TrEMBL record:
<dbReference type="InterPro" id="IPR036388">
    <property type="entry name" value="WH-like_DNA-bd_sf"/>
</dbReference>
<dbReference type="Pfam" id="PF01614">
    <property type="entry name" value="IclR_C"/>
</dbReference>
<dbReference type="InterPro" id="IPR036390">
    <property type="entry name" value="WH_DNA-bd_sf"/>
</dbReference>
<dbReference type="InterPro" id="IPR029016">
    <property type="entry name" value="GAF-like_dom_sf"/>
</dbReference>
<feature type="domain" description="HTH iclR-type">
    <location>
        <begin position="2"/>
        <end position="67"/>
    </location>
</feature>
<protein>
    <submittedName>
        <fullName>DNA-binding IclR family transcriptional regulator</fullName>
    </submittedName>
</protein>
<feature type="domain" description="IclR-ED">
    <location>
        <begin position="68"/>
        <end position="251"/>
    </location>
</feature>
<keyword id="KW-0804">Transcription</keyword>
<dbReference type="Pfam" id="PF09339">
    <property type="entry name" value="HTH_IclR"/>
</dbReference>
<dbReference type="InterPro" id="IPR050707">
    <property type="entry name" value="HTH_MetabolicPath_Reg"/>
</dbReference>
<dbReference type="InterPro" id="IPR005471">
    <property type="entry name" value="Tscrpt_reg_IclR_N"/>
</dbReference>
<keyword id="KW-0238">DNA-binding</keyword>
<dbReference type="GO" id="GO:0003677">
    <property type="term" value="F:DNA binding"/>
</dbReference>
<keyword id="KW-0805">Transcription regulation</keyword>
<dbReference type="InterPro" id="IPR014757">
    <property type="entry name" value="Tscrpt_reg_IclR_C"/>
</dbReference>
Length: 256
């Protein structure tokens, strides 16, 4: 990591509950760096909304932590909350349908798997908690991407070429955008062999108290299990679990 970035971020550690506001001179002294260097680092943090300046005079400036940190802290809090709330329902769902259950969120324009419950079957999927993947591969990631604004979708898909995992064949962006629209309209995502060969995934959205999609509840297993009446069962059970988790998170909209 760039050393200037590291030095700038370390300055944030000097703000505490007891000292929520610090002057340029105080920060320079604590960091044992010249005031011009401290000012340069603080200015970078201020321009990114990590800090804001409360006062400035010809001799010194005073700084407080910025709203960007509150925003980031809320994201972390939401992730911790959703994992805690969702896990018991994921475990219950896994016992009912005996398939692998994932909880997926979007982070830095990627899909991140933040929770997983394995099935009792011999099948083991190549997913782990903390794994990241493109938002255009798999039912869970696609569910998240489908519920983003069109401008954000286009930004994420702006790479010159998109490739499928495994065989590395190109993905048609126009067809992908049409698929995302279908997912959004239908309220669920369905994928076959996109992350693991011979497997199928089904995902439903999880909403928060602001009625925004913040995660996807994904069920994955051998494609042979996702057929006929069993497919209907898997879809119904997954949808019900996603609804229950959403309600526990404060969602008060119509049934999903």
């Amino acid at each position: 990591m760039n050393q200037s970035v590291i030095k700038a971020l370390k300055l944030l550690n000097y703000f505490t509950v007891e000292t929520p506001e610090l002057t340029l001179k105080e920060i320079a002294n604590k960091a044992d760096i010249p005031k011009p260097t401290a000012y340069r680092l603080l200015s970078a943090l201020e321009s990114s909304d990590f800090l804001y300046k409360t006062k400035e005079n010809e001799h010194d400036g005073r700084y407080r932590l910025g709203l960007k940190l509150l925003e980031l802290g809320q994201i972390v809090s939401d992730q911790l909350e959703i994992r805690t709330i969702a896990l018991p329902y994921m475990e219950e769902l896994a016992q009912e349908i005996n398939e692998v259950i994932h909880l997926v969120i979007s982070s830095q324009d990627e899909a991140t798997y933040i929770e997983k419950v394995d099935s009792a079957r011999a099948l083991r999927l190549y997913t782990r908690i903390g794994k990241s993947s493109p938002l255009y591969v798999g039912s869970g990631p696609k569910m998240l991407l489908a519920n983003m604004p069109r401008e954000q979708q286009e930004k994420i898909l702006s790479d010159s070429e998109l490739y499928r995992l495994g065989d590395h064949t190109p993905i048609d962006k126009q067809q992908l955008m049409q698929q995302l629209e279908t997912i959004y309209q239908d309220g669920y995502a369905y994928s076959i062999g996109e992350q693991d060969a011979d497997t199928t995934g089904i995902s439903y959205p999880i909403y928060d108290s602001r009625n925004q999609v913040i995660a996807a509840l994904a069920v994955s297993g051998l494609s042979s299990h996702f057929q006929g009446d069993n497919l209907k069962l898997l879809k119904n059970k997954t949808k019900q679990s996603a609804q229950t988790i959403s309600r526990q998170l404060g969602y008060r909209g119509p049934d999903l």
